[in-house]
Amino acid sequence: MEELVSIDKIRVQLEADDWKDAIRKAGDLLIASGDIEASYIENMIASVEQLGPYMVIAKGFALAHAAPCEAVKNNAVSLINLKEGVDFGSSNDPVKVVMALACTDKESHIASLSKIAMRLMKEGMIAKLADCESAEELYGLINRD
């Protein structure tokens, strides 16, 4: 089993005031692990404000990310699910699962996106991620091949 998200970067059944808060909660896990600086979270939020809700790539799922920059110290992924969905202004709202992706360069960004897409394309995966009640359950589900 290849670990896509480590257990320390997973939280479940969080409450978020809105989409910005959801991105911050996912990003805070990457700050806590030393993988990003706080400015990267603001870059993710600014991306949505400038480009619209393109991060909501599937029903109920947002892949929060921004362009590689100096605020990213290590390639990293975090994953949260929310008690109540938040609206990004997308046809795929409400979002209950938010994955934050931080990459140091474009090549690793594309490689990470490919791995994530393969996992998410499994039948019913996003709904299962949304329903997880423990970090261990979410960890097992996202990292299972």
Textual characterization of the structure:
The protein is of the alpha/beta class and 145 residues long. It has one domain (7-143): Mannitol-specific EII, Chain A (3-Layer(aba) Sandwich), CATH 3.40.930.10. It is built from five helices and five strands; from the N terminus they run βααββββααα. Strand 4 (76-86) and strand 5 (95-102) form a beta hairpin. Helix 1 runs antiparallel to helix 2. The longest helix is centred in the C-terminal third of the chain and has 15 residues, at 106-120. The protein is globular. The termini are close together.
Compile the SSE list and pairings.
Layout: E1 10-14, H1 19-32, H2 38-51, E2 56-58, E3 61-65, E4 76-86, E5 95-102, H3 106-120, H4 125-131, H5 135-143
Parallel strand pairs: 1-4, 3-5
Antiparallel strand pairs: 2-3, 4-5
Average of pLDDT = 93
- Kindly give the count of domains: 1
Query: How many strand segments?
Result: 5
H/I helix tally: 5
Shape: globular
Enumerate the strands of the largest sheet in spatial order, edge to edge or round the barrel: 1-4-5-3-2
* Highest-level CATH class: Alpha Beta
Strand content range? 15-25%
CATH architecture: 3-Layer(aba) Sandwich
String of helices and strands: EHHEEEEHHH
Structural class: alpha/beta
